[in-house]
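Re: the request from the purification team.
They wanted to know what the chain is likely to look like in 3D before they choose a buffer screen. I agreed to run a prediction and write the result into the notebook, where they can find it.
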Amino acid sequence: MKNDGYTIEQCGAHLDLSDRSTVLTDIANRIATGLGLQSATPILKALEKRESTGSTGLEKGVALPHCALPDADRFVAGLITLKEPIDFGAIDGQPSDIFLFVGGPEERRSDHVRILAALTTQLRQEEVRERVRQATSGTELAQILTSGMGTVQTDETGPFSILVIYVQDEARYEPILEAVSGEPDASVSVSEAKSAGSILHRLPLFATFWNEQESRDVHRIEVTLPRERVNRTIRRIEEISGEKNGVQISALDLSYGSGQLDL
């Protein structure tokens, strides 16, 4: 199944794999098959090298092994689930049983990041994780992923807009950044700021309302994207942010824009 420049294939449900080594070996073989390569050994080494820099085990039983490959001419993504969860060094300390994997050309870093972000956003939803765990075949797993992604054709010369998102809540910052980074044809930049209270507490009129210790860091995310994607992206951000406190979204139409930033 093709989607936005990559294929989702080689999925497998309820596999009997008992540890990190057998999982990575299985994934390497699936990526090699998807890319039409005879040997999975270089892929396995690339996956192991990536894991050596820090586990790709996320939270809620989800892991995201991935690697960049010099001989790859396209991206292959897939999903496997295990009969029994294993220790994969996840950041929440819980065992993993859902493994979403991606392999692709090492020179296309920005595309790699966007694919990872777009796929990971889906698995942050409890409902999607439950459907994945209940799936009984690789075909069903591939359908779950592709149905959640959708393929949107855009006119790259059409009108663009800017989304500016300010985030004070650390727990929501990374999921929001992942969501917007997964948008095709989008340029994303981030910067850091301070809340107004960090300045106002110095003014005599407002000195009793704040102190320096109470000032809060603010993450600023700026996204330039096709105007037709704005409403969908805002909905995704609001699904993550939930209550409005701590997250502010502004949308501005561009009268002119050209070029694109590398992530």
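For the purification team: Confidence is low (pLDDT under 50) at residues 150-156.
Please add any questions underneath this entry.
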